[in-house]
Automatic annotation (TrEMBL), chain A:
This is Globin domain-containing protein. It comes from Myripristis murdjan (pinecone soldierfish). Gene3D superfamilies: Globins (1.10.490.10). Belongs to the globin family. The lineage of its organism: Eukaryota, Metazoa, Chordata, Craniata, Vertebrata. One of its GO terms (cellular component) is blood microparticle. CDD domains: Hb-alpha-like.
From TrEMBL, chain B:
InterPro entries: Globin, Globin-like_sf, Globin/Proto, Hemoglobin_b, Hemoglobin_oxygen_transport. Keywords: Heme, Iron, Metal-binding, Oxygen transport, Transport. GO terms for biological process: hydrogen peroxide catabolic process. The gene is HBE1. This is Hemoglobin subunit epsilon 1. Pfam families: Globin. PROSITE patterns: GLOBIN. One of its GO terms (molecular function) is peroxidase activity. Residues 3-154 form the Globin domain.
């Protein structure tokens, strides 16, 4: 389900809208994921605290959201643009790719909460497609 | 048998107490609250079940289709049955599950898609009140409903 011109325009639009709050949104989405889908905590057993609002969650949420923001600028070639991140996830982190979908859902929920008027059905559609493509690019080097 | 904590029961009951079904399905100008609309737009293959609903050609057509909003309310009232039977959702949904399998022929994956959309619509309505604990209880509830709806398929 590749991105058409309308999708790309909606994605750059919503991202510029949310970018000033990106670190906060990232922390919120990650914290939610760890709470609502506790199996995802297995990847963070090295953190003292996985609760929403904790220091490691805030820090890592910001990292993830910044990487997604960077991917927005590389929308025309996600596989190429995310190749080193894909290697990291494939060989070092070894995150089961099913979890990308879970995080994507929590990103949708968080943006819907913070920007309800902007997160229209069409923006939701475009973002869902983008995050799916991002997940595929991230899983590219897995096997 | 699903175990519900007292906190979960309260959280779920509170969501339903404050839920205005007509409002959730109503298509407003920015389309950010309407449930059925959102599902039919974000996952367009779900439109396959609504061939008899007239014009679904684009977002505007779907937005102005009264049959779609009416159907959204019907679906939400279906959730009432689960809230009233939280300790036995499996059996409370047995006939509904058969209906969806034998008569409506709905792929059960669609229940998951609709439940994800519902969580997102509720998040956009409640904003910061949709806390992580509330989301966890709500999604647990929807997971049980989705499972019960898919149970009679064979």
């Amino acid at each position: 389900m590749s991105l058409n011109a309308k999708d790309k325009s909606l994605i750059t639009g919503i991202w510029s809208k949310i970018s000033s709050k990106a670190p906060e949104l990232g922390a919120e989405a990650l914290g939610r994921m760890l709470t609502v889908y506790p199996q995802t905590k297995t990847y963070f057993s090295h953190w003292a605290d996985t609760s929403p609002g904790s220091a490691p969650v805030k820090k890592h949420g910001a990292v993830i959201m910044a990487a997604i923001g960077d991917a927005v600028t590389k929308m025309d070639d996600l596989v190429g643009g995310l190749s080193s991140l894909s290697e990291l996830h494939a060989f070092k982190l070894r995150v089961d790719p099913a979890n990308f979908k879970i995080l994507a859902h929590n990103i949708h929920v968080t943006i819907a909460m913070y920007f309800p008027a902007d997160f229209t059905a069409e923006v939701h559609l475009a973002l869902d497609k983008f995050l799916q493509n991002l997940a595929l690019a991230l899983a590219e080097r897995y096997r | 048998m699903v175990e519900w904590t007292d906190q979960e029961r309260t959280l779920i009951a509170n969501i339903f107490a404050n839920l205005d079904y007509e409002d959730i399905v109503k298509p407003d100008v920015s389309c950010h609250h309407s449930l059925c609309l959102r599902c039919l737009i974000v996952y367009p293959w779900t439109q396959r079940y609504f061939g008899g609903f007239g014009n679904l050609y684009n977002a505007d057509a779907i937005m102005n289709n009264p049959m779609i909003s009416a159907h959204g309310v019907k679906i939400l009232h279906g959730l009432d049955r689960a809230v009233k039977n939280m300790d036995d959702i499996k059996n409370a949904y047995a006939t509904l599950s058969e209906l969806h399998s034998e008569k409506l022929h709905v792929d059960p994956d669609n229940f998951r898609l609709l439940s994800d959309c519902l969580s997102i619509v509720i998040a956009s309505k409640m904003g910061y009140d949709f806390t992580p604990d509330l989301q966890a209880a709500w999604q647990k509830f929807l997971t049980v409903v989705v499972f019960a709806l898919g149970r009679q398929y064979h």
